[in-house]
Amino acid sequence: MVLGIVAGGGLLPLLCAREAQRKNIPLKIFLYQEETQELADKYRQEFPEQCVVVRLGRLGELFSAFKKYRVSDVIFLGKIHKERLFSGMKYDLKALTFLAKMSGFSDQEFFDLLLRELNRRKIKVLPQYTFLQSLLLREGVYTKRKLTNQDWEDIRYGLFYARKMGELDIGQTVVVRRKTVLAVEALEGTDACILRGGALSHGKGAVVCKAERHSQDPRFDIPTVGLHTLQKMAESSCHILAVESHSVFVIGLEEMVSFANSHNIAIVSHKPVLKKP
Hints:
It is a single chain. The chain has helices at 12-22, 40-46, 59-68, 93-101, 107-120, 149-167, 190-200, 227-235, 253-262; strands spanning 3-7, 27-32, 51-54, 73-77, 124-125, 140-141, 173-177, 180-184, 207-210, 224-225, 240-244, 249-250, 266-270. The protein is α/β, with parallel strands linked by helices. The relative contact order is 0.13.
């Protein structure tokens, strides 16, 4: 087996590569150059022989690289800024063929086509958590801030609607206060959603909720939070981060807890309710 990690932005692909290497699994890391520039030196220092640079919109280039390096299994991880689709990105013939089969830019539609193509090439797509189980939090409160009954009502309410937004293929984050949705994540991403929701709470505190969609395919797009999420929350006076238990990647929990405690922010892992609270 040669494992391929297709790396977008952020730390997840790097953490996955470290764990795969620790298990002595033959590895190639396909770095999307548009998304991995910030960590490119880190990748090359730690994995000098395993890195292969590819470009967004060049699916033929990626598939050819899979064949060249005899990739048998692949994991897709890391942030891809979807707005690039609307900014004049150049596509190769294979990508254009994919786009011609799609009715829009739906993530699920693209993933379905991608799975069929890789299955045809006898390449197995592994769940994103394959080497990252430790990043999925068990249910509990991880910080010092005391939560009120109103806080718990907002947490349950927000996680319910975060799941609903995922099912509609809109986003995975909502910001709520007093059982009112202040902001919903869409194309602009989590940071903008947090800042907008925090602004609408007028500094009185809001709850940022992140959850997977009900029918989430674990091979693609498991939601992720990290220190940067908390920094945006502190900037916009949001006071609780609630994630769906066992379903959201939490990167750097120890560092996050330290930051959260120093800024009076709560971190909660909770199971969403299935009916509207």
